[in-house]
DNA sequence: CTGAAAGCGCTTACAG
DNA sequence: CTGAAAGCGCTTACAG
């Protein structure tokens, strides 16, 4: 009676041990393991009991060798890492994906490809079939890794619409434009009329779309666009500070700012307050993301919530579907205005 | 002449293809792959050329099946995840470990074990040999996972000294006590005498040691310990706020605080400033970590730098050594006082 | 529904 | 230094 004792790293039981315990062939054990089709209830039961008794756990390497699948997926970050690691959104996304995958018993391999060398190494690793698919975090256009993976036929789903790759690659994104519209409409409803904007990088969909939403709503509201009220950042806190300084210098009586990320909004807030202006009395500040950064400020940030939990869950769902043979798909998720004290 | 064309997911070349190309046996190819011992220079060369021509990449599953190693390691987080994901330190550590492992071409599997269920699942996964070793992030005492892994003989290295596991498990840690001493000495040198402290959780080494350093330096300086100046937090920002409120209520003329993490120090800073006190004029605030949180505040935080890059590099080094058969080891790394505007 | 058998791609003694 | 061969633990047609 083999017990699955711990202690030491003994040879773990194999399918062969289970078969012997259960009094069936190894083929039958394997069938039970793989869904239980074409197995009699009695055999099924005997095998399950034997598995329990022996403490059997499938050897994934042996399985992978024959199925050709690795039963793992990569989480690939091709951004310069410093920035992304500074951003709390990244954490939420990584955690959500890890958990969603855990549900399917699929491990997540973390891959960082910040440099050219790393990109080459990782592309090679992935195309060699060491993962079944890739969750891609890289919003900038012209990402060579994304293109290479797509060409190699690796199942792929991006977080945010990958500019330049057309709709041949799956992606999951929040409705950036709509979120921006909500925020700017909110600022207008507060009576603000000289509304600035600090955009994201303009080679990212978040950068482009959120700015588009801003322009649309102002235009619809009959307000002339003042280009001095538009500056760009790179989603970093410090770029928010720089942006706010520029805005205040160009339009000292600006009465509100829509900032395309909470982290940048932190920087904007600091600069606005340092200039002696009160938030929200003199200048209302609206962020984007509803990341932990939004509640770390004083006053806390009014912002647009990105549904990160759903985004990560959908990314995993779409990726697994694609690994299972389905065609690519794009998923757009709604955002939500979260009112706090900064507006 | 086979080119390693991309496109589609064709059957990749095997060791057999390489052997044919090179005109040698598969055994010889394998020997070249595994260090090139007992291989003539000419065979060596022929094989390398064939590998290049065919675009051969080893099939890790086949290799693992026979070696019994997975050539991968797990990064295991057993904390309730919310907190850790809020903490920028976590990112730095995760990134550092991933990069250090990439150097060795070893993938990192991210494992989150926040709930009892997840802990069970992951322990099973690990002890089944799916990873060769584990980088453990879990500072609380009495962690059942750590104990189980140790018993199962899984190579393990913790970040921070694991309370209760004795020295049978490897760990890498910053010199917490010494860092705390530096900070409190610095505050004393500024002329502050009513110095409060917000500690970390007292069932963690960071909680215990940093408090010990605080007590030591004050005692050495001939200052009587005032227990009303000592409160505990859990490393979260909000616990820093709560701690500061308690301290200010108990000792309104407190003139400095040593806070055991930058994130908590953010909360302390907010509360102190909200109370109308100036930082650093009225109350000097010192943090711990030198995480990105330290420069996100206004004024920026004086803090104790934890050498995260070295910590992660050492964790990986010690783990790989242990996987290679070496005995456990503890590594203590020095910290550094970083002076900014908050003191 | 079930067993016997082939084979996935590699490594490693074993002879030479 | 090198080749032939066994075998790692599994899955999957193939016969029954």
Chart the SSEs and their pairings.
Two copies of one chain form a homodimer.
Chain A: H1 15-22, H2 26-33, H3 41-54, H4 60-67, E1 73-77, H5 81-86, H6 88-103, E2 108-112, H7 116-130, E3 133-137, H8 144-151, E4 156-159, E5 170-174, H9 176-189, E6 195-199, H10 205-220, E7 230-232, H11 237-250, E8 256-259, H12 262-274, E9 284-286, E10 303-305, H13 308-323, E11 330-333, E12 336-338
Parallel strand pairs in A: 1-2, 1-3, 3-4, 4-5, 5-11, 6-7, 6-8, 8-9
Antiparallel strand pairs in A: 10-12
Chain A binds a DNA duplex (16 and 16 nucleotides) through residues 14-16, 24-31, 33-34, 38-40, 43, 58-68.
Number of helical segments with 4 or more residues of chain A:
13
How would you sum up the global shape of chain A? elongated
Largest sheet of chain A: 6 strands, parallel
Low-confidence stretches of chain A: 1-8
Named at the architecture level, the CATH assignment of the largest domain in chain A is 3-Layer(aba) Sandwich
InterPro entries (chains A, B): HTH_LacI, LacI/GalR-like_sensor, Lambda_DNA-bd_dom_sf, Peripla_BP_I
Domain HTH lacI-type (chains A, B): 13-67
Protein name (chains A, B): LacI family transcriptional regulator
Keywords (chains A, B): DNA-binding, Transcription, Transcription regulation
């Amino acid at each position: 009676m083999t017990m699955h004792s711990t202690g030491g790293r003994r040879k773990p039981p194999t399918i062969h041990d289970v078969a012997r315990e259960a009094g069936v062939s190894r083929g039958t054990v394997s069938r039970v393991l793989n869904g239980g089709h074409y197995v009699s209830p009695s055999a099924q039961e005997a095998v399950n009991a034997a598995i329990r008794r022996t403490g059997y756990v499938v050897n994934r390497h042996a399985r992978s060798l024959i199925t050709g699948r690795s039963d793992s997926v990569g989480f690939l970050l091709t951004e310069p890492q410093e920035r992304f690691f500074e951003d709390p959104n990244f954490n939420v996304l990584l955690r959500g994906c890890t958990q969603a995958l855990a549900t399917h018993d699929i491990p997540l391999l973390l891959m960082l490809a910040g440099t050219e060398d790393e990109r080459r190494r990782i592309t090679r690793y992935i195309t060699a079939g060491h993962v079944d698919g890739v969750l891609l975090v890289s919003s900038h256009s012209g990402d060579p890794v994304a293109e290479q993976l797509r060409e190699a036929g690796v199942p792929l789903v991006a977080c945010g619409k990958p500019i330049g790759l057309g709709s041949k690659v799956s992606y999951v994104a929040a409705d950036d434009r709509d979120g921006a519209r909500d925020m700017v409409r909110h600022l207008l409803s507060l009576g603000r009329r000289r509304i600035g904007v600090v955009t994201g990088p303009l080679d990212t969909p978040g950068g482009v779309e959120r700015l588009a939403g801003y322009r649309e709503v102002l235009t619809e509201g009959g307000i002339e666009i003042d280009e001095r009220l538009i500056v760009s950042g790179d989603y970093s806190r410090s770029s928010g500070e720089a942006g706010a300084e520029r805005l205040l210098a160009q339009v000292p009586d600006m009465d509100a700012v829509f900032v395309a990320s909470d982290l940048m909004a932190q920087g904007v807030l600091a600069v606005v307050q340092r200039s002696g202006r009160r938030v929200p009395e003199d200048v209302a500040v609206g962020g984007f993301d509803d990341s932990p950064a939004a509640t770390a400020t004083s006053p806390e940030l009014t912002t647009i919530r990105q549904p990160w939990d759903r985004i990560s869950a959908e990314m995993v769902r779409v990726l697994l579907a694609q690994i299972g043979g389905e065609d690519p798909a794009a998923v757009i998720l709604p955002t939500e205005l979260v009112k706090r004290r900064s507006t």
